[in-house]
Every structure is written in structure tokens, then in C-alpha cells.
Amino acid sequence: MNPITTENPGLLPADALRVVGDALAAAAAARYPGGAVAVTFEAPRRPEFGDFATNLAFALAQTARRAPQLVAGELIEAAREASPELARVLASIEPSGGFINLRLAPAIWQNAVAHILREGTAYGSAPSNGRRISLEFGSANPTGPLVVVQGRTLSLGGTLAAVMRARGYDVFVEWIINDTGSQLDTLGRSLYARYRQIENPDFPFPDDGYPGDYLLPIARSLYARDGSRWCDAPESEWLEIFARYARDELVAQQQRTVERFRVAYDLWQSERELHEAGKIREGIARLEERGLTYERDGATYFRSTAFGDDKDRVVRRSDGRPTYFALDVAYHYEKLKRADRVIDILGPDHHGYIGRLHGLAAALGFPGHLDVLISGQVGLMRGGEQVSMSKRAGHIVTLDEILDEVGVDAARFLFIVPTFESPLVFDMALAVEKSNDNPVYYVQYGHARIASVLRNAAAEASSDPSLAALIEPSELALARRLAEFPAVLEGIAEHRAPHRLARYARDVAADFHAFYTTCRILDAEPTRREARLALARATQIVLARALQLAGVSAPDAM
Fold first, then answer.
1. Residue 409 half-sphere exposure, CB side, CA atoms within 13 Å?
2. Based on the domain organization, do 328 and 339 belong to the same domain?
3. Closest by alpha carbon to 101, among 124, 68, 136, 137?
4. Does the residue 174 lie in any domain?
5. 368 and 382 in one domain?
6. What does the pLDDT read at residue 478?
7. Is 136 helix (H, G, I), strand (E, B) or coil?
8. For residue 147, what is the DSSP state?
9. pLDDT at residue 395 in the model
10. Last residue of a domain, one of 77, 104, 131
């Protein structure tokens, strides 16, 4: 069905609320001149109370010296008398428990559906707001393949980036590769042991090594290239070579997994490159310029206790080598210089970093410019049993294995269902279940059902149907839900809350299923059929867009 072509869009819900808000504000100013307050609206908890409600009467009760219920009634009466235009935007307005509850006229929701059809796939998007965002997430150590914990942060970060871009933010997505320090040496020794075991299966594996089988193919690849060249060489000759080879192979694997998971990065930042480019020195120099360092026993300390930390942090050891915290200084200084806002998404057990990084941003001269988000613990359930996972013990289930078993769609969606810090038990059986208990299946089925309806109606659908026939409760409830989409996206971007997208998509699907159950579409009389087809098409637009932002496909058949 083609988009609606009506030139006069009519009042949209936000316009109608401004009319009501202005009328109530004028009534309040006239009756209670000393109690000027802003008029705000929220959706009531229960739909029988109306589309929107305002607590204006409670805010004026003290000035009026009257009960909120009486104040609400007086304001409604005065607004009606002074503002006749309320009659064309409201179906009802009444006091209830001190609140002012209102329902918008069906025409307002009909206009909202027409607006969605005109906007098409651009619906919910906003023009550029000029705000630059640096968003870092994922950032697994280059010592093994990605696992379920990174899967969750990838899904959260990828969804947040997509929504923020839709709302007009200029988002730069980056990953920091922690490729310096003792962990790379440990990785090199671990690969060397696997390399030696090709000829000598009894060659000892280091006690602190990474014992997962994922190093075996990398060792075979290196052996195919170099043969036994390194078998009798001293560690000083092979350690850096083996560490770099393992790092390069594992980072390449991580990048392939990330791409498979439908997440794109603008920058994969190597920590080693920051060192080599002198960025560590620049970061420390910035703190020194601001008088926030001191020397003790030959080491350089950052006065982090001045910014709420529990102790001052060493940034340069007595032998001149920078510390791991110095990397945080340099990397965040780089990000803060080129962005209006920096957002870090860290994995579980990083709560201690929140205050420390906030303090670091302030110390570098960018107070309040950094958000630190922590994703909750992730467990894996298979066959009704918890799966034990430990990289150090060699017991891992890779993200690729999860994707092989449940698919990208299920993983991307289910990882964002809980709030950021809430723990998640990823149930592999539920992820592939074809039932309403599986959230992603439920939403995708809604989209597929709409596609089926529209296919069957394609030959009859009007390009410019009248929407005045949309007056049934389930029709208006669905239209109200669709009209929320831009505000939902704005709330996700503002509050860093990707879970709201999953919840909203499920709500849209539920409202559509309710509408589909109670309202005949294809065999309704012509006027209603065309209006209901238009509502279905608007729903399809919103569901497809919500799924796209979550990194999930929108199937036309299931």
C-alpha cells in the first residue's frame, strides 16, 4: 500500500496536548495568579483513566486552599469556557482523585496514523542536533574469543548507538584493544606451549596460561608458517612474536564475530598504538599542567582523592613505565577532546570504575561529560541447567557458538530485554522457542502477520484511505501506541535505556494482536477495511523500525 498523500495533516497528539496545556495554564493563571506552575502530562497507569493525566490541581491546591479534586473541577470548567477549541481535540476531560484525566478525540489519533504513513521509514527520526557522542563498548581483552558477556554489551551498545543516531546525535563507536602489559606475555607463552605441543604433546602448559582450545588452530597456523623454527629458541626471541601473532589472530576473530552480530565500529583503538604515538605522555602532561600530580619515591601520582577516589593513583612508575591507569587517562583525554559526551559501557564487576572515571573526566577539564554504564552479570542456561564458564579454566561458550545455536536475531533482542544493570540468564531453549513466551518471536510474528495481511490486500488497497473509521477501542489503543515511538526513542537516547526498545516493540505487537483479534480487516466493509489496512501498515513501519534499531530482522513470513 502506498503512503498517504493528504496535504493537511491535522493536529497531532503533541499539538493537541499543547492546546489543552495552554487552556489549563490560562485557567490556572486567571483563578490562582499566585500559583503559576507548568502543565505536564503523563500516561496514567491504567488505560481506563484516559490517554493522559496532569497533576496540575495538586500543584495549585496549597495556593487555592482547596482539595485537589475541587481545584481540578474548577480548572476544567474554566478551561472549557475560555477555550472552545478544546471541544475539537478532546473526547473527554474530567477530574479523578485530584488528577485531570483526558482522552484525545479520535481524529487526533487518526492524524497520528496518517503522519506515520507519510513519514514512512523516517518516522521516529530527528534532524541532527549537533551533539558528538563517543561510545565505547565491547572492548574484550584480545586473549580469547568473545563470549556471552561481550554479547550483551555489544547488543546494548549497538542498540543505543542506533537509537541515538536516529535521534540526531553524531555517534562515534569505538573499541579499545588492551594489547600491552603482562596479559599479552601470558598469551604469548600460552600460544608457544600449544605450538610446542604439536611436536611434543607433553610440553608443559604455563600455570597462569589461557588453556582454551581456541589457541590450537592459531598454533597450527603459526607452525605451518614457521615450522619448528622457534622450538629451541630462547624466550627473548619468540615471546613478542607469539604474543603479537595471537593478538592479531584473536582480534581478527573478534572483529568477524562483531560484524556477524551486526555491530559496526568506527575505530578499533590499539593501546599499544596510544603508547607509540605518545598519547600516554600527553595525558599525564595534561594532569601535570593542571597541578594534579606529585612525585613520591620516584613515581608520579595523580591526586585522584581530590575527585572522590579512595586513594591517589600511580600513573608513572619509578622506572618510568606508565601504569594501566595511565592508559585510562590518555584514552579518555583523547575521547573527551573530540566529543561533547563520552559514554563507556563496561562489563560486570566494574562498579569501582564509575566514580574514578567521573573524577578523571573532571580532572582533565571535562566535568560532567562522561557517563559510565555497567551491564549486569550474564549466565547461560542450556537444557534447564546453568552452564559453567571460565576463560582461565578453559571452560567457555563462545558468542559464535551461541549464534550458531539460536541465531543473531534472538541474541540481539534478548540481550537488551533487562535493564542495563539487571542480571540476565540467557535461556538457549527459550531463544529458539516458537511461542509467545519468546519475546523476539512474538514481535517478529507480529510483523510477519501484518505482511501477510497486506499481501492479501495488495490488489485492493487505496493509496489515500480515509482514517475517520478508526474509532474502535483497540484501533485507538494501537494508534496511541504507535504515536509514542518518537518519544520512546528520545527517552532511550536521553536515559541510555535500550531495554525500553524491547519493551515498546512487545507492547506494539501485543496491541496489534489485540486489534487483529477484535477487528476484522480484509472482510470488513470497504471504508473500514481501508482504514484498518492503513493502521496495519503504520504498525508494520514502526515494528520494522524498532527491530532494525535493535539489530533484528523483520521477517515477512514465519
1. 19
2. yes
3. 68
4. no
5. no
6. 98
7. strand
8. B
9. 67
10. 104
**Sign of the CA dihedral with 513 first, then 514, 517, and 523 last:** negative
Q: Which of 412, 475, 469 is nearest to 439 (CA)?
A: 412
State the cell numbers at 433: 522457542
Residue 195 located in a structural domain: yes
Q: What is the pLDDT of residues 322-331, one digit of tens each?
A: 998 999 999 9
pLDDT tier at 462 (50, 70, 90 boundaries)? low
Question: Residue 356 has which C-alpha cell?
Answer: 574514578
Residue with cell 600491552: 180
Are 420 and 446 members of one domain?
no
Evaluate whether residue 131 is within a structural domain: no
Q: Is there a domain that residue 493 lies in?
A: yes
Into how many domains does the chain fold? 5
Once rounded to an integer, what is the mean pLDDT over residues 422-447? 95
Determine how β-strand 299-302 pairs with β-strand 293-296: antiparallel
Concatenating the DSSP letter of every residue in 66-115 gives: S-HHHHHHHHHHHHHHH-TTHHHHEEEEEEETTEEEEEE-HHHHHHHHHH
What is the average pLDDT across 208-230?
95
Strand partners for 299? 296
Structural domain range at position 291: 279-375
Q: Tell me, what's the pLDDT at 8?
A: 42
**Could you count the other beta carbons within 10 Å of the beta carbon of residue 232?**
6
What's the CATH number where 348 sits?
3.40.50.620
pLDDT over 80 at 36, yes or no: no
pTM exceeds cut of 0.90: yes
What is the CA 47 to chain-centroid distance, rounded? 27
Task: Name residues whose C-beta falls within 8 Å of residue 102's C-beta, 6 or more positions apart in sequence.
Answer: 20, 50, 51, 52, 53, 90, 92, 93, 94
For the chain, counts of helices (H) and of strands (E): 21, 14
Residues 23, 94, single domain; the answer is yes
Helix (H, G, I), strand (E, B) or coil at 242: helix
Q: Exposed, middle or buried, 351 (CB in 10 Å: 0-12/13-18/19+)?
A: exposed
Residues 85 and 21 in one domain: yes
Cβ pair 333, 283 in contact under 8 A: yes
Residue whose C-alpha is closest to residue 36's, from 11, 64, 8: 64
Give yes or no: residues 510 and 412 share one domain.
Answer: no
pLDDT (tens digit, 9 = 90+) per residue, 364-392?
Answer: 999 999 999 999 999 999 888 888 766 55
Q: Report whether 112 contacts 479 (CB < 8 A).
A: yes
Beta strands 52-54 and 99-104: pairing type? antiparallel
Residue ending a domain, choose from 360, 375, 390: 375
Residue (of 113, 22, 94, 114) closest to 52 by Cα position: 94
* In 176-233, alpha helices (H): 182-197, 215-226
d(C-alpha 380, C-alpha 395), whole Å: 12
Q: Residues 233-263: pLDDT tens digits? A: 999 999 999 999 999 999 999 999 999 999 9
* Pairwise CA distance, residues 437 & 439, whole Å: 6
The residues, ordered by sequence, that sit 6+ positions from 486 with a Cβ below 8 Å of its Cβ are 123, 124, 126
388 in the same domain as 369: no
